[in-house]
Each structure stands twice: as C-alpha cells, then as structure tokens.
Amino acid sequence: MASLILPNQSPPSSFLHQNTISERKFKKIQTIVPVARLFGASIFEAPKLKVLFIGVDDKKHPGNLPRTYTLTHSDVTSNLTLAISQSINNNQLQGWYNKLYRDEVIAEWRKVKGYMSLHVHCHISGGHFFLDLCAHLRFYIFTKELPLVLKAFAYGDGNLLKNYPELQEALVWVYFHSNVTEFNRVECWGPLMKALSSSSSSSSSSWSYGSATDEGESSNWEVPKTCLKECSCCFPPMSSIPWSHDLVKKTQHDDDDTNQWLQQKS
C-alpha cells in the first residue's frame, strides 16, 4: 500500500532523487530553448520592445537622411531593443554573447534609382565553429522569425510609416550572410505590408549571391543596384552595413591558403 506524505513527514529519498533529476532536465531545456528560438516567441509583443532614436526623428524621409535599424534581444527577459539611427548602433553588439551567437538583425532604408526599399541583413554562419555547426538551424529560425522582426521595425518606427505611407509599399530585401553556399543568398519578401503578415519565404523570390538566376516564382523584381556614377536617384550611394556578401569565396580562399601551407610543410 502506497504511503501518504503528510506535512510533518519528510519525502522519501527516492522522491528527492527523482525531483532533482527533473529539475536538472528542466534547467537544461531552459538553456537550450532560448538559443534555438533566437527571438523567443513568434508573436510580437509591443511592451517588450524598447526603441532608441539616435540622431534621427520621424520627420526626415530616409531618402534624404540615412536610416538604419539595429535589433537585438535578451534571452533572459525576451525583451527586444531596436535602435533607429543613421548607421549601425555598435554599442548593442558588444560583449561575448553577441559575438558568440550573432543573432542581431540589421536593416537600412535605401533609395535606388528613385525607388525606396528596406534591406535586412542576417548573419547565418562564418566567424567561428559554433555558427558553422548550426548554419541550417539558424537559417530556418531567422526565416521563421523574420515577420516578427519586420513587425518590430514597423511598430518602433510607426510614426515614420504614418508620415510617409508610401514606404509601406517598399520592397523588402533580405540578405542571409553565410560561408555555406546554400544559405548565402538574398530574398525579396515583397512589399513591407505584405511581408509583415508572411509566415515564411515560400512565396518570395530568391537568388544566390553572385548568381542572377531566379530560384523562386517568376517575378519582375530584381536586386536593386545603385548607379555606377554619382547621381541624385540613389541614396545613400553606399550601404552603411559593411557585412561581406562573399563569405563563401573567402572561406574557399582560406581553405586554399591552408592547403598550400600544408603542402609546403610536408
């Protein structure tokens, strides 16, 4: 007959042992889940978004003044921090955590040949072994969470979109930076308002870097390229985001250098 555990009785040692194991498993799961989620729950929660305006306001059109978004998050609180400034807010990207996980999202408004577009950048892999090992998972998660990211941009910079409603129809271009060819690509997610409600990139058009082949549905959208000469239809003339699009080539070049060095030593 099973014994009852009364308030004045101590739990059996077997119960304590099982409870300790359960707590350990729960804590282990807690440490794994935030890493896999990157941006927590897929549902955007406005109260958890902190917005910082640095050197910009909601009155100046991004076709006349550079406008960049730097979005980071905390695994501990699940809070998001969005800096809206003229260039990347590097203060958000300091510390060992950001350098290890590289789960920030950077974006900038650009006017190319008279048309405004939002260019979003995600770092998938390259830099250290941990990112390379999780490249496939990171690509999946960034793609899955991107609508949440865009909602954070739209909510945090809502007054700008109200003042210039035409920006809601601007095309969203997403750049995935990776040293793995499969994930080193650019995708067009369509107009901003449509991209906000998109659940995946299944309906987007996509290209691998260095290729002009459309791998998605047929579309007249083309990757925007600024004029080669000085003009008034492109702004800013150069991207404020210095992330390389040639990580695959760089990795292959480094591998070739390593092989040559080994051959010289042998």
TrEMBL record:
Chief localisation class: plastid
Chain ranges of the Staygreen protein domain: 44-193
Keyword set, alphabetical order: Chloroplast, Plastid, Transit peptide
Subcellular location: Plastid, Chloroplast
Membrane-crossing residue ranges in chain numbering: none
Any single biological process term in GO: chlorophyll catabolic process
Annotated Gene Ontology cellular component terms: chloroplast
Keyword Cell membrane part of the UniProt annotation: no
PANTHER family: LP06106P (PTHR31750:SF4), PROTEIN STAY-GREEN 1, CHLOROPLASTIC-RELATED (PTHR31750)
Family note: Belongs to the staygreen family.
Listed name of the protein: Staygreen protein
Native organism: Helianthus annuus
